[in-house]
Amino acid sequence: MIDRRGALGLAVGAAIASLAARAQPVQARVPRVGLLVSETLAGQARRIDALRAGLVDRGYVEGRSIAIEVRSAESDYERLPRLATELANSKVEVIVAFGIKALAAASRATSTIPIVIPATSSDLVALGFARSLARPGGNVTGSTTFGSEVMAERLEILKEVKPGTARVAVLVNPANAGTAPTFRQMEASARASNLAVRRFDVKSRAEFGDVLAACAKARMDGVILQDDTLFGEANAAELARLASKHGLLGVGGNDFAEAGGVIGYGRLDVELYRRGAHFVDRILNGAKPGDLPIEQAARFELVINAKAARSLGLAVPPDVLLRAERVIG
What we know:
The chain is an alpha/beta fold. The chain contains 12 helices and 13 strands.
């Protein structure tokens, strides 16, 4: 049996406990960012690390002040719609799309959750993902490199390295929404230079061997790779090996030359993905993606693999070597 003093003590203790509970700081909700990757996680590791580094630069600590959820299609593009829907349904604050295929899937999954694409060669306005670069207006923002201009420059460099070039193969991924408009513009550039370009569709890594063999059989003077995650870091070495095997002068992104291809020209993906954290940070702090201008990549790098060129019996002209930021071998 509890006497009056005991009851009073219990009442006071309960009151103090109640006040203490109310005085405890409310745990702030950790913002969640979803990464939607179309290719393998291993192949996109440098880009993922660059994005994470950019978030660290801005004071985020993963697991404490930000949570990152990753969904990867592992190069099976048919999985992208389901993975995008999973992220949308999980109510992440931002989706970061790794490439135009991921962006297309994310855009179909949600028109309200902000989407950031750190780097794409596609024209986001022409494809309907934004109203303009200055004011996108919807739920998509990020950076673009306008792939048609990059591809035209790759064509010019190929001609300089191999004078007399007449026929050039262009490897494209038909799943990339920017493929058709980019190739049309490339055809126009080729006609102006009295060149013939031929499109070769590649849907997966498993098709690399057959497609490169077809390019050689068609007596192509060289091969240019589209800016697409399929032809990026994870598969660059295999593409370089096959191009060399068939005696084809190849031009791709920087990772292509680093992996053994002759010429690499393009955007600096690691920089752009690190910069992608800027868009994520702005959105998490209240900015609307439609108000954040889509940036245009300003830095491009030319990499020449002189060793690979010599293996094909090519001497890279001195003026091309002088323009290169890096010369390998």
